[in-house]
Amino acid sequence: MHTHTVKAFDEEIGDLRALIAQMGGMAEEAIRAAVVALRRHDLAGAAAIVAGDKAIDALEMEVEQLAIRIIALRAPMADDLREVVAALKIAGVIERIGDYAKNIAKRVPLIDAQGDIEPLSVLPAMANLAIAMVHDVLDAFAARDAEAALDVCERDRQVDDFYNSLFRVLVTHMMENPKTIGQMAHVLFIAKNLERVGDHATNVAEMVYYAATGKHMAERDRSSFKMTEA
Amino acid sequence: MHTHTVKAFDEEIGDLRALIAQMGGMAEEAIRAAVVALRRHDLAGAAAIVAGDKAIDALEMEVEQLAIRIIALRAPMADDLREVVAALKIAGVIERIGDYAKNIAKRVPLIDAQGDIEPLSVLPAMANLAIAMVHDVLDAFAARDAEAALDVCERDRQVDDFYNSLFRVLVTHMMENPKTIGQMAHVLFIAKNLERVGDHATNVAEMVYYAATGKHMAERDRSSFKMTEA
Fold first, then answer.
1. Which is a Gene Ontology cellular component entry for this protein (chains A, B) (predicted)?
2. Which of A125, B24, B120, B164 is most buried, most CB within 10 Å of its CB?
3. Measured between CB atoms, which of B64, B96, B106 is closest to A225?
């Protein structure tokens, strides 16, 4: 801790940003790899993703310790405090995105249907949309770019539309192939996890917006039946 | 902020604990009420739960602001810092439990099957188990009781067993009643949400244990296929 007390505040914030960027890159890659492992029924790949989640968790702990240390030692005010708190919370959200990747990977052994069925074939496109949101919102955090954060929020609707369409496709598939219901239930959870990744990117966007501007993003129009909070 | 600087640290921690207890009570009640609304197909009750979640969110923001203020103004060390950080994180978890209640409530209008079908009839018992874990772990936090926190962790297995059994019951029900698949998919998500409430109580227990002892709870035995991370 002593070496940190002589570090400039900006340097410490730079360390925080670097940790967040590293965590974000790992979580994005984990989601991408989990969907690839699913389509290939790659059990070894899936197991590696599950094991790799520990590294993301460890980084979250590093962010937390550094953020608390900065707040306690420097007592930053206003913009600086908002940014440190945002980093702390963003790390928590990225950790959860890592958990979603792990959860998807854990379902790989339970789904032996190959990628030629419709519900599985659309998952990669949905995953890519969600991952791109995560990537862009972390760029927005690094650049303190409130406008870019707003843009990420707009894109959450596409992920939701994907999910709602996939939900209907899955239910239809289950009705027509009752023997696959158990497996398709796992696919349904995977689709839900990806939809949640989009929600988390949106939450981060709200944090980035607040950190950059000191104002809360205006409550956006949300359908009262949107199923995205948990 | 000025009035707080003259408050004793213990008094500020007391305020934090009181906010956490209040949040926890609201989240427990929201989960309980959501399952009741589901069984009664009570749309007004469900809408009230959705609306009430904002109050839990507002309390989380209060906890966050108070915790950050304590860290910045008092630079607490060791035990005291661990406790403030635990409060900050526990508030985040309770907020998520509130989101699960809201999510369950939002599904009420989508499920018109009455409580006489088996999958719906077991949900209240599962909800009660999960809620009791939340209640007891917050008591453990208030009492700095590491042993009580360990006890809560042990009980998560019961909630998981409930969920795994319910998953099979739901899949069987879907196979035998294909027309209900859409609705039963929503019930499946509700069961998953309740299982997640148990997981979150376990996470809080780990935070309470660490705050009380300064040691991380030993990694407990977890099946590598346990589906509880997301």
1. cytoplasm
2. B24
3. B106
Q: Write the pLDDT tens digit of every residue in A57-99.
A: 999 999 999 998 898 888 888 888 888 999 999 999 999 999 9
Q: What is d(CA B106, CA A176) in angstroms, rounded to the nearest whole number?
A: 27
B229 touches chain A (CB under 8 A): yes
Residues of A in contact with B204 (CB under 8 A): none
Chain-chain contact of B229 with A106 (C-beta, under 8 angstroms) = yes
Collapsed DSSP state (helix, strand, coil) of residue A102: helix
CA B4 to chain centre: 30
Side chain identity, residue A51? A
A180 inside 8 A of chain B by CB: no
Separation CA B153–CA B147 (nearest Å):
10
* d(C-alpha A1, C-alpha A92), whole Å: 23
The SS3 of residue A126 is helix
pLDDT tops 80 at residue A225: no
Domain ranges of chain A: 2-213
Cβ of B75 within 8 Å of Cβ of A72? The answer is: yes
Q: Do the Cβ atoms of A21 and A63 come closer than 8 Å?
A: no
Q: Which of B75, B109, B224 is facing A73, going by the closest CB pair? A: B75
Yes or no: say if A41 and A49 are a contact pair by the CB < 8 Å rule.
Answer: no
Please check whether residue B217 touches A, CB under 8 A.
Answer: no
Residue A229 and residue B101: Cα distance in Å, rounded? 9
**Topology annotation, domain A2-213:** Methane Monooxygenase Hydroxylase; Chain G, domain 1 (1.20.58)
Whole-number Å distance between alpha carbons of A202 and A150: 9
Q: Does B80 touch chain A (CB under 8 A)?
A: no
ipTM of the complex: 0.86
Radius of gyration of chain B, Cα coordinates, nearest whole angstrom: 19
pLDDT, tens digit (0-9, with 9 covering 90-100), for B41-61 = 999 999 999 999 999 999 999
Residues 39-78 of B with CB under 8 A from A: 50, 53, 64, 68, 71-73, 75-76
User: What is each CA distance from A174 to A116, A121, A223, in whole angstroms?
Assistant: 15, 16, 27
Cβ atoms of A126 and A188 within 8 Å: the answer is no
The answer for residues whose C-beta is within 8 angstroms of residue A69's C-beta and 6 or more apart is A1, A4
Q: What count of CB pairs under 8 Å joins A to B? A: 99
Question: Across the interface, which of A109, A181, A229 has its CB nearest the CB of B102?
Answer: A229
B116 DSSP 8-state letter: T
Select the residue of B99, B109, B175 nearest A230 (Cβ to Cβ): B99
